[in-house]
Write a structure and sequence with these properties.
6-stranded parallel β-sheet, alpha/beta, 234 residues, 13% strand, 9 helices
């Protein structure tokens, strides 16, 4: 019976490590090499009515991006998937349900992680969890289904609805070579934000490529701690 407190303590420590590990993003893809003048611009939640505007801005700047699409939006707009690929961009997965992983049953999350808009395409096949959230099963399911969990290191914060020029300036202040920039396919400010952002990246000599072409690397222990501090002010 004396072993019970020790077992409980070990289980608690393991659970805490798992929760912190998911919040930190350890084991997921974060950014690319810092010594190569490339960055990735990524869009979540599409395709939708804003997608043609984003494609026009990307074409004007000769930039190639990664679109993390959801299954409902992909089914509703197959013509936009075709347009995205025709523009030289990459399609990857944002899941079936736009819900945090902890609200899904295990069989729902298996379907969530395993779905991909272009499963027959040569890999890597990336999966970006909605809100970047994991469950204890996310990484296991990703490994079993041949997916790589893909996060980011720089947020454009277009979901706030702020002034596009201000958001672009704030984003550029955080960008480094190899950065993966998170934007969204939907907010009204995103096309103008994207235009200003791409202009700034071009002035700094940074080429915009799909995320897998950086190529993205797994988040290190130190980088995970930085993510925790940024998320929770620790």
């Amino acid at each position: 019976m004396r072993r019970v407190p020790w077992i409980a303590a070990l289980l608690t420590a393991a659970l805490l490590a798992e929760v912190l590990g998911r919040a930190a993003g350890w084991g997921a893809l974060g950014h690319g090499p810092r010594d190569r003048w490339r960055v990735a611009v990524t869009f979540d939640d599409g395709p939708g009515e804003r997608t043609p505007d984003l494609l026009a801005v990307l074409a004007r700047h000769r930039a190639r991006a990664t679109f993390f699409v959801t299954r409902p939006a992909a089914r509703a707009h197959p013509e936009l998937l075709t347009a995205i690929e025709a523009g030289g961009h990459t399609l990857d997965a944002h899941g079936i349900w736009h819900r945090t992983a902890l609200t899904l049953t295990p069989w729902q999350e298996w379907a969530q992680v395993a779905w991909h808009p272009r499963p027959a395409r040569p890999g890597p096949h990336l999966y970006r969890p909605p809100y970047g959230g994991h469950s204890p099963l996310t990484r296991l399911f990703a490994r079993l289904s041949g997916r790589q969990v893909a996060l980011w290191d720089t947020e454009g914060r277009d979901w706030t609805g702020g002034d596009p020029a201000t958001l672009a300036a704030q984003t550029l202040a955080r960008v480094q070579p190899g950065s993966v920039i998170l934007l969204h396919d939907g907010p009204a400010v995103t096309p103008a934000l994207l235009d200003a952002l791409l202009s700034g990246l071009g002035e700094r000599g940074l080429e915009v490529v799909p995320m897998h072409e950086l190529p993205a690397r797994r988040i290190t222990f130190r980088e995970g701690l930085t993510r925790l501090r940024a998320s929770y002010g620790a």
